[in-house]
Task: structure prediction
Amino acid sequence: MLTEVAVIVDIADSVEYKSLPSGLHDVQEDTVYFIHHDEYAGISSFVKGEAQKLERNARMLAVGVLIPLSYGRLGKCWKYADELKSLARKLVKDPTKTHLLDNLWQQHRLQEDEHATRPPSVEGSPSALKGKSSPNGQPPTRNRAVSSASALAPPGQTLSAHHPALSLPTYLDTFGPLVFPLYKAALLRKRVLLISHAPVELACHFAAQENLASEGQAYGWVACTTDGILSTKDHLYDVLVTLPSASSMDHENQTNKTWPRIQGKKAVNIRATQRDARRYRVLRQDLSHYRSSSSRPPSSQQPAVEQYTDSPSPDNDSAPLLPSLSHLPTDPNPPPPEPDQTDILESQSWSALAYSSFMWWASAGETRTDREEEAEYDSSLLANNLDPPGETPSPGLSRGKTMSGGQEGDGRIGFEMAVIGYFHRLSVLILRTLSDIIDAANDEDPLDGGSVAGREEAEVVVELDDMTKMGLDIWSESDRVFVVELVDFYWGKKAIVKGGSLECCGVRVL
Result:
């Protein structure tokens, strides 16, 4: 078998290491996703079974395939997960049945003429972007607009059982507000490394979801490993994510859960902003209207993910008011109790606290507050409405409508589609806002703004209203740094980002 494959793909150097990560001997089954030579997506199914004493009482093996990335995101390799697992279970009992491998090869092999004439690599894949660069010397961005989430599956169809997107409820439960710092890192095309324990299927899904949320562009990556020693080699990554063990990621007991730890260079902790926390709270509540395409979690992660139930048991006094997103209830309850987020949130600054107190005093008696408009705006991202707070909704889109045109919760759009669409629209909103600012600066009259060359090198000023429109925290230094890096990465320009302030009678007091 290997000699047949080697004619097309060299697998001798790293496939075994990638398909059998450290720690698999501690689990009975697992599914591993990996990329090979920037051209192929790999998936392997690991199984451990009993054996004779001569084999140390255990037999371990993995059966996997490589699929060209040109055939879709990750080569759509998850479609083969169940078949590979079934085959691995048979072989671990009797390794002499190699004819089963040959049957799999003959059934799914890529014919020589197909390999020679296969479609070009998917736009945005590493192979498609090799050797390309943008005019400013930065990694290229996609020319097309961010796609809608409908690309995940055609209307009327559900995702296959092992599709990485089906772990999105667990992903949101696991990271909470930290999904937004990770999203920002992915949008900046940073190298994000997840350190996890075996089994690794869920961590592989998390890595794939980061790419889904940011449109999966190249020049930067999200990957996972079980080799903790890599955390000491910070020249290999930009952002390090340490996942807690499956037993400590208790989505049922939300008040005592263990959060992942996110760090940058030199072990600097990365936390979510106060604005991220408010946005996540609204997102979590709004998503309770949506059903998942499938209630079955990855088989290798059964203990860590709950099964879907239509409603919590009324006789269980210890049940939370609203189950975690992994439960996806059909009838939402009042806002759920949230776990302690002190360790994962930036502290509220004295300036922000003073500003909030002043605005509460100044707006006493008003029917609407900034926070209410902010929450409504956040909800509109899930409903495909990008109008700024306080403005009239776009024609043809009323509040409460979903991407498919139906009402929230009417079953016409899945949970996974809604989440991916949400982050895609957030990307469009942020990049479009900055693009408009830069275009406006470039369109200034040369007589007023100096030479064209001078305008090209001029600094871009991002005002408070722009930060608010992008849904960023005007009081957070990390969000201001994010915008500076974003403008430099995509446009090669320097940016000045205005922070929060408070003026009284024309005098700045904060």
About this structure: The CA atoms of residues 138 and 489 lie 6 Å apart.
